[in-house]
Amino acid sequence: MRILHVSDCYLPRLGGIEVQVGDLVRMQREAGHEVEVATATPGEPLSGVYRIVAKLPFDLPVHPFGVGHLLRLMRARHPDVVHVHTGAVSPFAWMGVRAAVRLGLPVVVTVHSMWDPVTRALYRGLRMLFEWHRWGLVGTAVSEAAALPIRGVAGRKVPVNVVSNGLDVSGWRSSAVVRREPDDKAVHVVAVGRLAPRKQPVRLLRLLKEARARVPQETPMRATIVGDGPARSQMERYLRANGMGGWVSLPGRYSRDQIRELLFSADVFVAPAPRESFGLAALEARAAGVPVVARAQSGVADFVRPGKEGLLGRSFEDLVASVARLAGDRELRESIAAHNRETEPVRSSWPMVLEGFEQCYRQARTGRG
């Protein structure tokens, strides 16, 4: 099958969408498909990647004449299906949708983010203006939590399937055989993510502070928060103001290999963002055998069940209680960790993800046919 992926952002940028689309392209090629990418992200030439780039401030991944460029590319490459990847608002990606619809090509649109009330209102307005719900699109979302608001806006004419983000599960499960050194008795809490205000990283520090206050002092704790972003300086001020620098560290951005190594020593993984559409870092932790604490309303709930793979909470207070409970209950931690090591998150394995998208491609092609 000839597949053309369209995404505002792509490698060499590093982010959730970029990494996931890059991995999907690689896995589809290994499965024997002819796969190409159209993106507005500048960068070095890559095989099968068409960079439709305009000279804009800050290298913004947008092109004012993207539809025309994409029309010419699609006419030249003749894809069997166009697979578009969007965040909350992705102008270049939606140009790809417009171009494919004008050429009568089957289109699958994957939404990688959670639509908040403002985003839902925006797409309702665009639906009234352009009637995009009549374009014959097939939608996918990365979790049930992310799919729910999209279905509410799209209506019955646009099927919205759930296809999980993909992960090489075996690569992360191998880390579970590594054990901490016996003399390291501190309960190690780990979080991974961009330090951006929408992720509420300072609220994460407050969560750790309140959880620490509930755990007996004779139980040592330490925490590592991996990532970088505009909220880092605010977090550093919070750590200084609350005397947490001795047990909470902010080491910055890690590579995936470094994160895998970090999870060797983790006892608890925390993913506190309430509007997390999926939570790839949480899935990596779960695959590595680490108990996960997350919001019940987030996409993490697709692969974490309370008491099985971790603990879920509907409020900040619930998350504090969950972290404190796991930190203070070694038997519960070890029980969940053993379950995570012995079972695979099958829905997120690449064979399942590839089959899920192929079903969507057939659905889109059938609709066009």
Automatic annotation (TrEMBL):
InterPro entries listed in its UniProt record: Glyco_trans_1 (IPR001296), Glyco_trans_4-like_N (IPR028098), Glycosyltransferase_grp1 (IPR050194)
GO-annotated biological processes: carbohydrate derivative biosynthetic process
Domain Glycosyltransferase subfamily 4-like N-terminal: 15-169
Domain Glycosyl transferase family: 183-342
Oxidoreductase is among the record's keywords: no
Membrane-traversing stretches: none
A Pfam family annotated for this UniProt entry: Glyco_transf_4
Alphabetized GO MF terms: hexosyltransferase activity
Keywords per UniProt: Glycosyltransferase, Transferase
Top-level lineage group: Bacteria
Name by which UniProt lists this protein: Glycosyltransferase involved in cell wall biosynthesis
Organism the protein comes from: Streptosporangium album
